[in-house]
């Protein structure tokens, strides 16, 4: 069996804020391997499951950091490209950067106000913000020293040497502008986001994201198991990794009909940080699952294969932008919907091609036969979803759509299916017109109190 020491031991880690003095109160996750790993190794008949689990745990530490210092192993290509997924600022779209700045302007209003007053001669008294401990430490270490004349502007931003020139060239340039920029461009570190997750999400989603938090165990539907990167209410094709904006949308909107709340009250920077943490848990979980799968082949936990697993998983996430499920531009407007179109939808719904009724029932109440699995001894049980939970097709007469109730949301669900669930993507031979008729038929089920028009 190969051993992990020499190659993995040499891997570099990104310690973004080492020594800045910020320590999270509680490590963000307690164990290194997830609870499923050892049983999976036993089931795969790996010779020494304890040793294999320990090796996988060790490798995860090398690739994803430790509970109190999470991070990502940087591949040689990333080092060359200066990419570090732990510092996601660089991957935000222009629109997201604007939203972050705007949100920070609101969130740090007190800090920005104090800076403005100081620029007019008042003593500088910037209050500590509610969250964002690392930024506060950096502010105190940097700006306090700067103002006391103990540090130069460039000490604050070692990576932007142009600042000094800027300040020399532009007589109007003051530390105040730089201080404003500091708060406006706030972006949480992975550790800060992990802390917010611990406070706001862990009770449902669990420390490693398995959907097994203390509250989560009692919910139906269960909180998402975040460890495999498969989501339901995103705009990519079913079972593909989501884009950042897909997860932002989920966090802003929440999941209507489930216990998943909306987190709109947090700033865009904090939401982007939560997306970073969700992705961290997913990439870590997927890598762990692949490592277990590889170990099952011959019992070896081989560094080469862990590296392959890590790159494979990142490849899936990096492909997200190309896997968006397109929706046609010309969405039929409700005023254009004719009784003939609804009738056509009803026919499709119960017809052999779309066959929605097999699961949702003829009347759309969610009581079709196709959700049952019949064992050899004749016992019936519900078909399970990807996460092992019994399937419940939506009662379409209730008018509650978890993924949004705009016609385009329903088009996506019907055309591309719902990730992780038994709801399939529509048959290729259904045309867009067929799908729109299904969309409006589904909507008609609740608008008319269950009596199809
Ligand atoms: C009160 C319990 C609860 C809390 C708190 C909670 N969630 Fe959820 N979350 C859920 C449930 C339940 C679902 C599953 C909904 C479904 O299956 O349709 C879910 C689903 C999700 C999904 C997947 C959505 C999809 O498209 O599949 C993400 C991502 C997520 N939650 C992230 C978070 C984050 C991040 C936090 C904290 C900021 C959080 N959740 C807090 C209960 C919760
Ligand atoms: C094999 C079973 C199956 C078939 C076939 C099926 N569905 Fe579903 N459908 C489900 C399940 C299960 C869910 C619930 C998914 C969840 O929330 O976990 C669902 C959910 C839905 C939703 C709710 C989406 C939301 O945002 O809440 C709609 C709408 C829907 N199905 C429409 C259809 C239509 C239209 C068809 C036919 C083209 C169809 N389904 C075929 C099983 C099925």
Descriptive report:
This protein is mostly helical and 453 residues long. It has three domains: 1-108 and 186-321, no CATH class; 109-184, no CATH class; 334-447, Cytochrome Bc1 Complex, Chain D, domain 2 (Orthogonal Bundle). Helix content is 46%, strand content 2%. The strands form two sheets. A two-stranded antiparallel ribbon has the order 1-2. It has a two-stranded antiparallel sheet with strand order 3-4. Strand 3 (372-374) and strand 4 form a beta hairpin. Mean pLDDT is 86; it is low at 1-22, 158-163 and 449-453. Bound molecules: heme C (HEC) (2 copies). The site of one heme C (HEC) has 27 residues, from helix 17, helix 18 and helix 19.
């Amino acid at each position: 069996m190969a051993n992990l020491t020499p190659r993995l031991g040499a891997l570099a880690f990104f310690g973004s804020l080492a020594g800045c003095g910020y320590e999270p109160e509680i490590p963000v996750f307690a164990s290194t391997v997830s609870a499923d790993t050892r049983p999976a190794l036993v089931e795969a008949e790996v010779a020494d499951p304890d040793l294999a689990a320990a090796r996988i745990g060790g490798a995860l530490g090398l690739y994803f950091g430790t509970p109190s210092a999470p991070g990502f192993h940087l591949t040689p290509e990333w080092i060359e490209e200066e990419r570090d997924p732990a510092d996601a600022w660089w991957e935000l779209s222009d629109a997201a950067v604007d939203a972050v700045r705007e949100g920070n302007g609101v969130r740090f209003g007190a800090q920005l106000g104090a800076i403005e007053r100081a620029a007019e001669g008042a003593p500088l008294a910037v209050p500590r913000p509610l969250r964002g401990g690392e930024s506060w430490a950096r502010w105190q270490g940097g700006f306090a020293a700067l103002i006391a004349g103990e540090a130069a502007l460039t000490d604050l931003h070692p990576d932007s040497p142009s600042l000094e020139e800027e300040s020399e060239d532009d007589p109007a340039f003051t530390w105040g502008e730089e201080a404003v920029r500091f708060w406006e461009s706030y972006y949480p570190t992975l550790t800060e986001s992990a802390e917010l997750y611990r406070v706001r999400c862990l009770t449902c989603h669990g420390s490693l994201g398995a959907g097994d938090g203390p509250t989560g165990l009692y919910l139906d539907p269960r909180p998402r198991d975040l460890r495999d990167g498969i989501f339901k209410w995103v705009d990519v094709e079913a079972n593909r990794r989501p884009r950042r904006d897909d997860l932002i949308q989920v966090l802003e909107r929440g999941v209507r009909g489930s216990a998943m709340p909306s987190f709109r009250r947090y700033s865009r920077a904090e939401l982007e940080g939560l997306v970073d943490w969700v992705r961290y848990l997913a990439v870590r979980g997927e890598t762990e699952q692949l490592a277990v799968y590889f170990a099952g082949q011959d019992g070896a936990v081989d560094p080469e294969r862990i590296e392959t697993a890590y790159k494979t998983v990142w490849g899936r996430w990096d492909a997200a932008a190309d896997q968006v499920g397109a929706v046609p531009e010309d969405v039929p407007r409700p005023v254009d919907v004719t009784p003939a179109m609804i009738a056509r939808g009803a026919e499709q719904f119960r017809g052999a091609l779309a066959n929605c009724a097999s699961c949702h029932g003829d009347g759309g109440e969610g009581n079709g036969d196709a959700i049952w699995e019949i064992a050899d001894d004749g016992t019936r049980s519900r078909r399970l979803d990807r996460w092992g939970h019994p399937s419940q097709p939506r009662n379409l007469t209730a008018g509650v759509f978890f993924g949004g109730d705009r016609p385009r949301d329903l088009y996506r669900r019907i055309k591309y299916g719902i990730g992780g669930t038994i709801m399939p993507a529509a048959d290729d031979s259904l045309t867009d017109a067929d799908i729109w008729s299904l969309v409006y038929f589904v909507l008609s089920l609740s608008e008319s109190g269950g009596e199809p028009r």
